[in-house]
């Protein structure tokens, strides 16, 4: 057992201990409170004067798929040869040896939601991974987690260059609809096949994963920057009665009232970047504050490698400078990120029974001068500052 003592604990579960303790038993949190009596054989870490938060969660990135310091050889995030590729799995492309995983955990990022890029209308399957492990099987928290879809400029640009659809937003929406209709038909055949084995269709990897979307076992993870693209994503999700998260959501703050009305799940970012595309003209660090003050639950992401994953707390810090409540900013990179991506049963807050993913900082995590002193993943000490 390990006991962390005397630190300021921000549980992200609406409870803060000015001077509290956390008891870790194996991979999980066994107890949180004040003046916990440590078992005789427990390793003691004195966190006097330090801040303790849940391991940080990046809800949308491409870590391990666009490898640090590499070009084509390490670029495995976009299979830009077919606009519909739901069968692709992130875990078959992620390299656990990507240096970015080490940098992530050294800065307190313990969980990453990573997957395909946005070249395709349907890009493939995202996965939630811990940032420590020698092989992908040791890192998986949840897989598959979601199915990536993309609206706006990226699919248009990629496929108009190949003289094939989509070259317009109309075609992007139509291609997504057609794929979901095909999945509906495949689902109906499966139902018939259960009653009559002779009618069971041949296995189809594309359709199998989209049937999980139709069954609400997996959400769509929608790349959408512009307000009209965000609303198109919501429109299609409602048409097919599927779950969806709105990722990037760059102009979401311009339609915050609509997002609140739709009870939208919003993941904002990357914000610490340039306006390199037309659809980013309204990029603003004020967006998280506007959305959260409107009542929309907000998470923030890096889109790594667009912003290196270790700078997620920096993004949250700037959002506070631009008007976001400090606790809401911390939630946006912990519990909100976990809830929106469907992994809050294990990560995102410090609660009894959850994974012992813990980041201990020398001061306020949103003060860029603060450093990580200790980082735990699944109860293992994976980083200690020398």
How would you characterize this protein structure?
By secondary structure, the protein is of the alpha/beta class. It folds into 2 domains: 92 residues, Urease, subunit C, domain 1; 292 residues, Metal-dependent hydrolases (TIM Barrel, Alpha-Beta Barrel), CATH 3.20.20. Helix content is 28%, strand content 25%. Strands 1, 2, 3, 4, 5, 14, 15 and 16 form an 8-stranded mixed β-sheet that branches. Helix 4 packs across helix 5, helix 4 runs parallel beside helix 6 and helix 9 runs antiparallel to helix 10. The longest helix is centred in the middle third of the chain and has 27 residues. The mean pLDDT is 97.
What is the compact description of this entry?
The chain has 386 residues and is of the alpha/beta class. Helix content is 28%, strand content 25%.
Which of globular, elongated, flat, extended, rod-shaped describes the shape? globular
CATH topology annotation of the largest domain: TIM Barrel
| CATH architecture assignment name of the largest domain | Alpha-Beta Barrel
Number of strands: 16
Main sheet specs: 8 strands, mixed
List keywords for this structure.
386 residues, alpha/beta, Urease, subunit C, domain 1, TIM Barrel, eight-stranded mixed beta sheet, 11 helices
Describe how the helices and strands are arranged.
Layout: E1 2-10, E2 16-25, E3 28-33, E4 43-46, E5 51-54, E6 56-61, H1 99-106, E7 109-114, E8 122-130, H2 136-139, E9 140-150, H3 153-160, H4 169-195, H5 205-214, E10 220-224, H6 227-240, E11 244-248, H7 256-261, E12 266-268, H8 287-293, E13 298-300, H9 312-321, H10 326-332, H11 335-341, E14 358-361, E15 372-377, E16 380-384
Parallel strand pairs: 1-4, 1-5, 6-7, 9-10, 10-11, 11-12, 12-13
Antiparallel strand pairs: 1-2, 2-3, 5-14, 7-8, 8-9, 14-15, 15-16
